[in-house]
Amino acid sequence: MPDIIEPRVLKGFRDYLPEAEIERQALIDKLERVFRSFGFVPIDTPVLEYAEILLGKGGGETDKQVYRFKDQGERDVAMRFDLTVPFARFMAEHVDELYLPFRRYHMAKVWRGENTQRGRYREFMQCDFDIVGTDSAEADADIVLVMLNAIAALGIGPFTLRMNHRGLFNRFLATLGASEKTPAILRAVDKLDKIGKEEVGKLIEAEIGSDAALKVLDYIVAGKDFPSTLARLESLAGGPGTDSSRLREIHEAATESKAIGEGKPGKLVLDPSITRGLDYYTGVVFELYLDDLPEVGAVSGGGRYDELASLYTKRKLPGVGAAIGLDRLLAAAETLGKTEGRASYTDVIVLSVEEGWGPRYQGIAAALRGSGLSAEVFPEKKKMAQQFAYAEKKKIPFAVILGGDESARGVVTLRELSARENRDFGSIEEAAAFIRDRTGR
Amino acid sequence: MPDIIEPRVLKGFRDYLPEAEIERQALIDKLERVFRSFGFVPIDTPVLEYAEILLGKGGGETDKQVYRFKDQGERDVAMRFDLTVPFARFMAEHVDELYLPFRRYHMAKVWRGENTQRGRYREFMQCDFDIVGTDSAEADADIVLVMLNAIAALGIGPFTLRMNHRGLFNRFLATLGASEKTPAILRAVDKLDKIGKEEVGKLIEAEIGSDAALKVLDYIVAGKDFPSTLARLESLAGGPGTDSSRLREIHEAATESKAIGEGKPGKLVLDPSITRGLDYYTGVVFELYLDDLPEVGAVSGGGRYDELASLYTKRKLPGVGAAIGLDRLLAAAETLGKTEGRASYTDVIVLSVEEGWGPRYQGIAAALRGSGLSAEVFPEKKKMAQQFAYAEKKKIPFAVILGGDESARGVVTLRELSARENRDFGSIEEAAAFIRDRTGR
Fold it and tell me: Within this chain, do residues A296 and A361 fall inside the same structural domain, yes or no?
């Protein structure tokens, strides 16, 4: 046995060092504030559940990636691989203790034993928000508004929410007599970003012939202006319907609530090529892209579904929801240079100048905290250069210097660390006011 | 195969419904604010690690409780059962990327397959904070101050932090010529709360005889006044030493920083009977109890240790830290009637009065959010009674009522739901000001 065990994490797992964790928590805080401001409530569910609950009838690609094992009681258990399945189980179990419509958010870790060669992590955060128990257009609008407001709150530049409605597309295909080919056509359209219009056209042509394929290709082009695009699609689909009126209402809600428009970073585009897979969504669907980084893909997406929890209850629970890709957003903020860049929350450090003055320094730090600042005491008398180096590593903007000399002069010295500038103050309160002024705290 | 799968969680696991989750997040927020204000930074580590890393040489009682299994790659992995071991591994791995002294907090879930009959949960939150890389008294003081400030911030009544120093007790035992019996005596003293003074006396007597045992029993009595108790223990231990001067300095720091004293809920008591187990701690040790609920046991505890990470590195990493028992504090707040009692964050709900006015209601909700309130739109036109019942379930204090009638009169009606009182306002902004005034937002 070796003297020491090599400290390392599993492949696909990672530690969050302070700067990364502060960044992640800042992102979470911003999103949480938006969710809460829209009436969404938080819930939490266990990380471990019965495998049967998480995997249902199972057999899919996901199953192989799930961390599944027998616990001490020989129960077949698994770690959650998303937040949707646990939410479905949660609603089925608790709907009578709750109320409908129920709007919740959940930000938590999930685990998938993915192939790490594609840069995927096996442990990552998901962020879901849904409104369950109503089929109304207002709920759809709410989800769209939360997406627009949440991404705007992150301050990472302009973005576009691309929205579509499954029903509208279905009606259009019916006018072509192509209803039976809908799944194949949707699958083809879903590849538009990857393989391009021409190849998509070939795939559709193989299904419904070249004339109809051309019409589909014409249909799926997004126009710049929401109302005129909607009018065009509505007419191609055979006239007004609940699908098109719903899309119109969502656009109006975004306009009325000023989530889009003059001075706003977000745009709402009607994009008939958005399909979001085949099975789950039944109404509106949406995806959100950063204009400056389209290549990272959708940073948020979602839609309306008919049945959240049919695996666990006979009660019908229609809903609408979306997920936000925290890892993608963190990476995007990094790439765009829009990170917070903090290494700590400390506004000011009280340096250790004189041996045995610890309690006095703690008193000063407490006074600084009392004026609304974060303050720490450097916990041992070391060389000033070492204490400054520590402060620099934590990106602390200010240091209080109080030794025998300052004490004799009846002052405290405040050092602005980046500028290497010292200023004397007659009291801690005056120094604190200066820091607050400079840091905007 | 049945039609539906019964929705249920594993024994020892639980869902957090909104009220419980809001309570937990409020607790976490309050603690986090204190940690941050003292310069502590957050980190995160993976839930899954190599079993070898988490269990070390292993073989203890803990091992049997650990969720351990083979992953898809046949790696022997385990879910973390505390936050201390991952932190030790983290420091050993990253110390060169970080800085010392390093002060971190970590609040996260851990898993232990405990016997649930004792009311234990198998999934629970832990909250740890430590300062590593220094042996200084100021760091000890910092941990004590954080404990005092953190529990005070929760506003759940008076509490007492009981502190002791291992070295002082060791010196005292040496004066009795009982150094070799230290472990047995500590074990006996540790049982004081459980079996009482008399039984502890018998255990000690069996080790070192009745005269010496009486002296030990005399020694371990806590005095009410910190300085005089310290003076008595110091003298019994053979005079001043680094241990007693350190205890004195911590008490001074708490006094200087006004963490104790006039009007403060926390007291700092020197309690020579506090031992906190045998192996890990080597200096100061502390435990914190709620005065109104001593029976729940320590809600926080910790101490100084010589070596955080000797399993993973030859580098010496002394430190000091403590843990806060979130579940105990949540239960205590509940028992003491000091919970927040919120069911949502919503300040005001915009009711759905007229069909098709959704976008207009969204505009109103957006204006309310713009004035700093949390606002949601009830997403479908249902009977007023149903909408009121929903608001009541979420404990929403205010509702905006705007229908054709109000619109014709050029007003919005604001209903204070608990009082069932309606008031008309000329604008949303005036209504918002009224809500802010009433709710203190």
Answer: no
